[in-house]
Amino acid sequence: MTGRQIRQWMVGGALMLSALSAVTASARAGEMLPGSAFAIACENGGSYVLRSRPVLAPGEIVTAQLYLAPHHPVPVRLIPMGDGYRYAGRGVWLDGIRDQALLYLRKYQPVACTVSRI
Question: Is the model's pTM score more than 0.70?
Answer without folding.
Answer: no
